[in-house]
Amino acid sequence: MTADFLTATRTFYDAIADDYAERFREDVSNRPLDRALLATYAELVGPGGEVADLGCGPGRVTGRLAGLGLSVFGLDLSASMLAIARRENPGLRFVQGSMLELAVADRSLDGVVCWYSSIHTPDDHLPSLFGEFRRVLRPGGHLLLAFQVGDVARRFEEPWGHPVTLDFQRRRPEEMARLLAETGFRLHSSTVREADAWLEETSPQAYLIATS
Questions:
Q1: Which of 68, 64, 66, 63 is nearest to 43 (CA)?
Q2: Mean per-residue pLDDT for 104-109?
Q3: Which distant-in-sequence residues (6+ apart) come within 8 Å of 169 by Cβ?
Q4: Cα–Cα distances in Å, from 182 out to 42, 43, 46, 132, 177?
């Protein structure tokens, strides 16, 4: 699938990959609830469960999921992000591609993680995105979806001095849950925490776990 937003996303992250990886090096480590939710998710999937970390970036969540006993691979649009992920996680598999068109067989995965990576997908593409997640999940497989809460996108212009711009979509958990239900998912849990000023967050954070 060729779309302007995919090109814009890939270009943005190719440009900022090194700065992003350094800035958010301890991102998950500094967020106790995030760590707890990832551990809960890993327990739901079960030891050795086959999981795709979609929009994996520098692979920090991929590595944590592997450390929690899952058989996980990462996928990202950005070759620069994948280079960092492979360097920092030499024992894991990382592939380049779009999560809207996964080169994965039907019903072949136990889990899909979309950790702040649906935020660059336009609203009208979300049903297709969630449909692709459900296609690759086995019956009873689990989806973990994380995103910022809100109604208005946040635009990042020239981060760290790089000449790129990208919109980061913020969405309501109840609306995302509705879209997941329409795609055939059953909501397992919905968690929202307030923005953490110490972490320089500007909006609440949402975490949905759903079952196929």
A1: 68
A2: 98
A3: 118, 119, 120, 121, 122, 123, 147, 153
A4: 25, 26, 26, 13, 9
- pTM of this structure: 0.94
Contact call for residues 134 and 108 (beta carbons, < 8 A): no
- Rounded to whole angstroms, the Cα distance separating 35 from 123 reads 28
pLDDT digits (tens, 9 = 90+) for 123-150: 999 999 999 999 999 999 999 999 999 9
Which residue has better confidence, 21 or 198? 21
161: its two tokens: 């001095």
Q: What is the dihedral of CA 142, 148, 154, 159, to 10 degrees?
A: -80
Rg (CA), the chain: 16
| Strand duo 186-193 + 205-211: pairing | antiparallel
Q: Are strands 154-157 and 165-168 parallel, antiparallel or unpaired?
A: antiparallel
Q: What is the structure's pLDDT at 1? A: 40
Provide the percentage of residues in the chain whose pLDDT is more than 90. 84
- The answer to whether 77 and 95 are in contact (CB under 8 A) is no
Q: Which long-range contacts (CB under 8 A, 24 or more apart) does 180-183 make?
A: 180/130, 180/143, 180/145, 180/208, 180/210, 182/127, 183/127, 183/130, 183/131, 183/133, 183/134
Using the predicted structure, report yes or no on whether residue 87 has a pLDDT greater than 70: yes
* Per-residue confidence (pLDDT) for residue 3, from 0 to 100: 66
Q: Any idea what DSSP says for residue 69?
A: T
- How far apart CA 106 and CA 132 sit, in angstroms, is 9
